[in-house]
């Protein structure tokens, strides 16, 4: 029987032991996975964002950390949710350690008064989805995890009637209100997105996220503006973790009335050109796309992205 207890996130030794389990578990099952840096983990738990809190649990035997759980507890409109992740060292699997961590995590959920637990599991390995289903989780959404090698040979190009605006980290003040609107529209229209993923973005939330993200990541944003009206009609974002050789392609979105003009492609090319110009140390780029999003899947193929994993978002509801 393992001893499971919260991790003191300000204890470097304890936090590094926790991170080492996550790293070893992912390397064993998912050799092409994108793994956050230790800096990103430490910053996220030691200086949390303004809209939730995070709890780390560790399972120990004879003083060794052999399994871990991470609980993200958002607030406001998502205050009924717990986002959960569990890892166990490969040599200690199939002995019930993961189930013990799940029970300890579920105690935190009940204590916090939350009714919905969500998690992301990947194939490979198939056992992760089987484990989640055995605990009563159901798959509610899928995304292809895609990756491509850098550099990519695509030159920036103009789209008639539009201009591409670029910025790093902090959104310019004169574009903030329109950018908030784009982010909210993206949340409503994103293929496969569940209602639990939708957050009402505000200027304050954007600024708070920018501040917390900047501790561990550089951010490059491209936005398309219609020249005639001055309206922002689309955007694309890439994150670059400090101390990593990876790039993370995040959202790319174009308003419905402006689709079909290759704006999505132009936005991605613009951000990639900035990465390759200013961050030549990056050797790969990762992105996640709903299998039914045919337009974005076609664009990703043009860049040479290949499918390396299938991610399932799973959920379990507990009411009392």
TrEMBL record:
The keyword Heme appears for this protein: no
Keywords of this entry: Acyltransferase, Transferase
GO molecular function terms listed in the Swiss-Prot or TrEMBL record: acyltransferase activity, transferring groups other than amino-acyl groups
Domain of life according to the entry: Bacteria
Name of a matching Pfam family: Acetyltransf_1
Domain N-acetyltransferase residue range list: 2-171
Name this protein carries in UniProt: GNAT superfamily N-acetyltransferase
